[in-house]
Amino acid sequence: MSYFYNDELEDVYTYDVDKAKELMAEAGYEDGFDITITVPSNYQKHIDTAQVIAQQLKQINVNATIEPVEWGQWLEQVYTNADYQTTVVGLTGKLDPNDILGRYVSDYAKNFMKYNNPDYDKLIEQAKAESDPAARMKLLHQAEDILVGQDYVVDPLYFYTQKYMLRDGIEGMYYTPLGYFFFGYCTQSK
User: Fold this and answer.
1) Continuous segment of H or E residues that includes residue 182
2) Are the beta carbons of 46 and 52 closer than 8 angstroms?
C-alpha cells in the first residue's frame, strides 16, 4: 500500500534510551515495572520479536516476561477477551488501508485493543465514503497520526519480507499484493 504510506510518522518515536528513562520517571516508573508479553507460540517470528523487545525494555528497568500460548488460547485470551498486557501479532494480506485501520474503530467487533477515539472513528468513516483518492489519503493520514503519532496505540515494528530465487529462463511469475506467487503466466525461455 505504498500509495497510502505516511512517511511523516517514521520518526515520531526514535530509539532514545535516555528519553525513555525520562518519560518513565515523569510517569512515576523510574524504578521500572514488570510486564507480560503474550505471544502465539506457533509464530516463531512473534516470539523472536518479543525477545528483542524484552531485551530493549531491560534498558529502562522494565522486566518483560514472554508468555507463549497456543494459537487457540491466544485467540480467546487476547483477541476475544482482551485479557493481556501486551502482545506481538502480524497483519497480512490487505489491499486497502481500511482493512488494517478499520480494526481500531471503537465498534469494530475484533478491536482486541479496545481502542476508542471518536475523532479517529470519524476520520475512518469519512475515508470509507470518500471517492477522491487524494482527499481519502489525507483523511487516512490524519487517522494514522492519531493512532500512531498521538495515542500511540500500535507500534508497527517491521515489515516481513521473503526472498525467493528462480532459475534463469523463467519469466512471467509475479508476486501478488496479497503476498502470493502467481505462476499462471510463467514461461521458460530456451
Assistant:
1) strand 181-182
2) no
How many angstroms separate the CA atoms of 106 and 186, rounded? 45
Cα 145 to Cα 86: distance, rounded to the nearest angstrom: 21
Indicate the pLDDT class of residue 173, thresholds 50, 70 and 90: confident
Instruction: Give pLDDT, residue 177.
Output: 62
Give the range among 8-17, 53-62, 68-77 with minimum mean pLDDT. 8-17
Please tell me what DSSP assigns to residue 147. Answer: I
What pTM did the predictor assign?
0.68
**CA–CA gap between residue 113 and residue 87 (Å, rounded):** 10
Count other C-beta atoms under 10 Å from residue 44's C-beta. 11
**Range list of H helices, 40-153:** 44-58, 71-74, 97-101, 118-129, 133-144
Query: Can you tell me the distance from the alpha carbon of 71 to that of 156, in angstroms, rounded to the nearest whole number?
Result: 21
Write the CB contacts of 40 (distance below 8 Å, at least 6 apart in sequence).
46, 68, 69, 70, 71, 74, 89
Rounded to 5 degrees, φ, ψ at 131 are: -95, -20
Please state, as a whole number, how many other Cβ atoms lie within 10 Å of the Cβ of residue 153.
14
